[in-house]
Amino acid sequence: MPSKKGRVYRGEPYLFYLVCIELMTYPSVKVESSFWDQGCFRVVGVDDVGLGPICGPVLACAVLLPTYCDLIEGVRDSKQLSAGQREYLAPRIRAQALAIGIGAASVREIESLNVRRASHLAMRRALARIGAYDHALIDGLPIRDVDLGPHSTIVDADAQCYSVACASIIAKVTRDRLMERLARRFPHYGWERNAGYGTREHLQAVRQHGVTPYHRRGFAPIRDLLRPNEGDDACRDRSRMRVDRQPNG
């Protein structure tokens, strides 16, 4: 399906504006087909999620699809979808996929490796659950710190490659459900709503109730809140600090 650019419509007697702020792209199997045409039939799409939150693991998903498969209507980069849309599409992707692998890296691994390298570790674990594969299509920049086997890295692959878009949706749904389960154990932080991102509600809860074993102590908001001997002025300064807005992805 072709990309749709924003348009402006004007009508009388009222003025109407229909503006798409972002370029809405729909993935295809063009890249996958280039490998299928060469006899590489086990092409896996890989994406990660959870690099930005201040708590919880980073998670990756690998999806192996049938060759020359039909595209499920509505599948695209998970960040362009609402939670309801992702929940609707996830079981349909699972039904179409030949195999799905989920890998995670813990908060301890994030702290020891850094979150980017931890995400690569999660990708390797996800691919290991797929079994043998001919090639992996991975969203992001080149990866050199772990061996992921034969693969290509593609910036914004989740917006271009259907298999990677599928992986992005499964990864996001899986992690969100995990954070919902953890929220039942730690109910003060709103993880069922913020998925661990540093929202105002979340940071205020950390100030009131402290950190949990699932908080990333090396991330700036948590590290700043843990600094010793901070007075009331510092607390007020922290309350004015920029709070990241939670993305969908």
Question: What profile does the largest beta sheet have?
Answer: 5 strands, mixed
Q: How far apart are the termini?
A: 22 Å
Runs in which pLDDT lies below 50 for 5 or more consecutive residues are 1-23, 229-247
Estimated radius of gyration = 20 Å
The gross shape turns out to be globular
- Output the number of helix runs: 10
Strand tally is 5
Mean pLDDT: 86
Q: Considering DSSP H and I runs of 4 or more, what fraction of the residues is helical?
A: 40-55%
Strand order of the largest sheet: 3-2-1-4-5
- The proportion of residues in beta strands is 5-15%
Structural classification: alpha/beta
Series of secondary-structure elements, N-terminal to C-terminal? HEEHEHHEEHHHHHH
Structure notes:
The protein has 249 residues and is α/β, with parallel strands linked by helices. The protein has ten helices and five strands, in the order αββαβααββαααααα. It has helices spanning 30-36, 83-96, 107-113, 115-130, 157-160, 162-185, 191-194, 200-209, 220-225, 232-239; strands at 43-49, 58-64, 99-105, 135-139, 151-154. The chain has a five-stranded mixed beta sheet. Helix 2 (83-96) packs across helix 6 (162-185) and helix 3 (107-113) crosses helix 4. The longest helix is centred in the last third of the chain and has 24 residues, at 162-185. The chain is globular, with a radius of gyration of 20 Å.
